[in-house]
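Design a sequence for this backbone.
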């Protein structure tokens, strides 16, 4: 099989490519140049997709004896990931850029180009598993190592994309084993730190980065009953669940801290309240997609049991979900949580599971707490 190995410059993608070579596939390595500042270097474990990473990817391909190329996807990355990130925050939502990158870059733009060039599959170092059912349909499942499982950020993959996806690290029991294997293979990235934070904000200061790109206008901070408690420099600079930086002159009546419950960008207001109101019981999602063939209940509109996860490394919680038509006629996902979940914000992604299988995902449009009569997600 002709395989295009996406080489990030990290240890996971290097070992994944090595395993694809060892399995007898015809492998070509490619590094995606996503940064529009090619002189940027990573700082320790912050950021990725830099010149340093490109060189590390080249060294790995050289040791593996496979061709190596760099493809410039920086313009597409800026439009589909960076600009989307800014627009979502400007609309008062909390986006997940890793989901957008996997959806629009690694498994849309990259896969599309790979197939056009005659490749059969794209291989990545993600910790996730693709399984075929009895009819040959592909399903996305959690990896063997739940601590490193990355199926959440792959929840946007479609059935067609799963047909051409290869994850050689699926059954690896731990990251330590991957590093040890890299060492045995003579790969210089064996002990390279994992990247974290948002790759295009390598210093980790998301708020400061956004303040340079979103026009902020002073507005009101309100209590849940609409009482004005203070002012803020701009609603877009806040996120649901935030506690620090509110700068309210007076404490709550019970003396306990207040948290951001809701952001209303159209009114330029921030709603704050007690911590218990962050516990969400129900969420509604838009931009729904299914990882593989949808389960029958999706077509019938019946409610089904599942588990819901809203962060890459968050704990899944028991839930009941159903699909219904939204106001615009497009499908919406309604998820009722059996146990409330804290700090859910519009713009985040909810991924549904049954056992280890990823069913699909949606972008959270609104979220509500049963302790608060009106929806908590009116933002947008």
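Sequence:
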């Amino acid at each position: 099989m002709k395989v295009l190995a996406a080489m990030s410059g990290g240890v996971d993608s290097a070992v994944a490519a090595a395993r694809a070579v060892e399995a007898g596939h015809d492998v070509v390595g490619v590094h995606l140049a996503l940064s529009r500042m090619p002189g940027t270097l990573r700082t320790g474990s912050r950021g990725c997709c830099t010149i340093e990473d490109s060189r590390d990817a080249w060294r790995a391909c050289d040791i593996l004896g496979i061709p190596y190329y760099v493809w410039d996807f920086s313009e597409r990355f800026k439009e589909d990931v960076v600009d989307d990130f800014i627009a979502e925050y400007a609309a008062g939502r909390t986006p997940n850029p890793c989901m957008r990158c996997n959806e629009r870059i690694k498994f849309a733009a990259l896969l599309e180009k790979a197939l056009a060039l005659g490749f059969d599959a794209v291989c990545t170092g993600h910790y996730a598993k693709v399984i075929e059912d009895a009819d040959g349909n592909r399903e996305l499942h959690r990896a063997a190592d739940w601590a490193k499982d990355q199926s959440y950020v792959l929840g946007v993959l479609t059935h067609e994309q799963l047909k051409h996806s290869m994850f050689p690290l699926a059954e690896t029991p731990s990251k330590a084993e991957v590093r040890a294997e890299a060492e045995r293979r003579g790969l210089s990235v064996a002990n390279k730190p994992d990247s974290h934070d948002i790759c295009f904000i390598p210093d980790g200061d998301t708020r400061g980065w956004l303040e340079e790109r979103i026009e902020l206008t002073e507005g009101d901070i309100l209590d849940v009953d609409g009482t004005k408690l203070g002012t803020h420099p701009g609603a877009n600079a806040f996120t649901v669940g935030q506690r620090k930086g509110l700068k309210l002159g007076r404490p709550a009546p019970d003396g306990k801290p207040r948290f951001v419950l809701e952001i209303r960008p159209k009114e330029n207001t921030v709603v704050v309240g007690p911590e218990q109101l962050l516990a969400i019981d129900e969420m509604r999602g838009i931009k729904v997609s299914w990882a593989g063939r949808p389960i029958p209940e999706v077509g019938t509109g019946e409610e089904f049991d599942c588990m819901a996860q809203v962060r890459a490394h968050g704990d899944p919680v028991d839930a009941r979900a159903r699909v219904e038509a939204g106001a615009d006629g497009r499908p919406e996902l309604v998820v009722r949580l059996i146990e409330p979940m804290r700090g859910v914000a519009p713009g985040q992604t909810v991924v549904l599971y049954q056992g280890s299988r990823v069913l699909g995902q949606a972008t959270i449009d609104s979220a509500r707490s049963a302790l608060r009569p009106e929806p908590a997600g009116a933002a947008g």
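The chain has three domains: 2-184, 215-273, 277-368.
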